[in-house]
Amino acid sequence: MTESILVVTPGEALKTKIIHDSAAGGRRFGNRGLIGATAVVVREEGVRALWSGLVPMLCKQGTNSAVRFTTFSMMQEKVINRWPRLEGNIGCTWILGALSGVITVYGPSPVSDSTFADGNRYASMPFDNAKTKLQSFDARYTGMMDYAAQTIRSDGLRAFWKGTSPRLVRLTVSG
């Protein structure tokens, strides 16, 4: 939670605003860099804008950590029991970390919807998408629940999992 509050949320808020500005022609931030972009956001939107999307960020980070660490630990225990000589092996650790990243994106979640053909429920993508939408400079949502309600009405449940594949690549490598 501390990491999300102090570092991740403000960093993601700035990153998202800069990306959206760039896609719209790049007039708001230009080439100001981190400090300049931060000053623009604080001046135009207030300091609270740096923590827009905090609730979904906390949910996403919590889900990521819970799924990743639990999965890694369980897989590591099974591998060590089966092949004791792999204990402490860097290659084994790397592979299990990558696999736990895959499961973090594509693993089970409490969401249940029979319209998903493969039956999979993706663990933290809805929170990641909510966070990104709430952090954009043209955000039209008042919070995570407002985002969820508007998204279900306009785009359906599948919209919560847009962008899953690029995130999968990142979490696999970072795992």
How would you spell out the order of helices and strands? HHHHHHH
In helices, the fraction of residues equals: 55-70%
Ends: how far apart?
Answer: 19 Å
Mean model confidence by pLDDT? 83
Largest sheet: none
Structure description:
This protein is mainly α and 175 residues long. The protein has 2 domains: 1-51, no CATH class; 53-174, no CATH class. The protein contains 7 helices and no strands. Helix 1 (2-23) packs across helix 3 (54-82), helix 3 (54-82) crosses helix 4 and helix 3 (54-82) runs antiparallel to helix 5. The longest helix is centred in the middle third of the chain and has 29 residues, at 54-82. It is elongated, with a radius of gyration of 19 Å. Mean pLDDT is 83; it is low at 109-121.
What is the element layout, followed by pairings?
Elements (H helix, E strand, L loop, with lengths): L1 H22 L9 H13 L8 H29 L7 H17 L18 H11 L8 H12 L8 H11 L1
Structure keywords:
single chain, about 180 residues, mainly alpha, about 65% helix, elongated
Outline of the structure:
The protein is built from seven helices and no strands. The chain is mainly α and 175 residues long.
